[in-house]
Amino acid sequence: MTGNHKDTSITRRRALVVSGGTVAAGGLAVAGFQSAFADVTDTSTDADATASASSTSSECMTLMSSVTEGPYYLDGALVRKDITEGKAGVPLTLRLTVVDATDGCTPVKGAAVEIWHCDAWGYYSGYTTANPGGSAPAESEEGDSADDNTYLRGYQVANANGVVKFETIFPGWYTPRTCHIHVKVHTGGEKEDGTYEGGKVNYTGQLFFDDTVAEEIFTLDPYSKHTGSYTVLADDMVYDGGGASSGLLTLKAVHKKDPSKGYKGSLTLGIDPDAENTGAGSGGGGTPPSGAPTGAPPSDSASPSASASS
Prior knowledge:
This protein is mainly β. The chain has three helices and nine strands; from the N terminus they run ααβββββββαββ.
């Protein structure tokens, strides 16, 4: 499997050239990266660092481009930091900062950031019978303890600096999409019964990964058990080549010589807290070759393995 051998039989809604803002993982560098990935706190030191980063970064001044929520969204995700539920894969620490792009990039305290993505073989919780394309083992063959209705989904509520942090795994892929994570930013609601209720959705988007990093990850176990034609960024139907403003993550390897040790990903999400987004967006989202996804939504009571956490 390689991104250099694309299946031309798949019709793309659009094929766009990636802009110069996309860079290889080895060249990614961010000033003050270590402090950026410190545990999320409300200390004055963290606040000063965040304010400094906001004032010097042009990314936060750009309103994020909303796109489709895709075919795999489910209500009722749990409020928790670690969303893995034992799913195997390369560790990914995700740090997102929500700012008001209409008001000088001020942090949006209390914003609820929701993410969801597929596992290493391209399966989504709640839709585990949907074919990810190519050749992959059945989702049930992984033998983990994950709840089939809740794994790799979750909310975090932004602190005073607009920061949320998730512990997850590097996503796999499914035909005809590139590797990605779905994201929504909510405001005006509140935590209730382990999830987030009420309010409105201000932004619906997707987070993307540099091709060089993704293709290296996909040679590792368990990703390598899913073979087929992987879609690179330039051929994806949703990513529009806009770099960070279109959801392209800044990535840093935990160990440069051993990608299996994991990655840290970061991005500033510039939103309009007064706006409301339906999730329709642009781009098709991409259903697998088997057609519309099937699967039951999560039940009202989560399993012990899917209990809410910070």
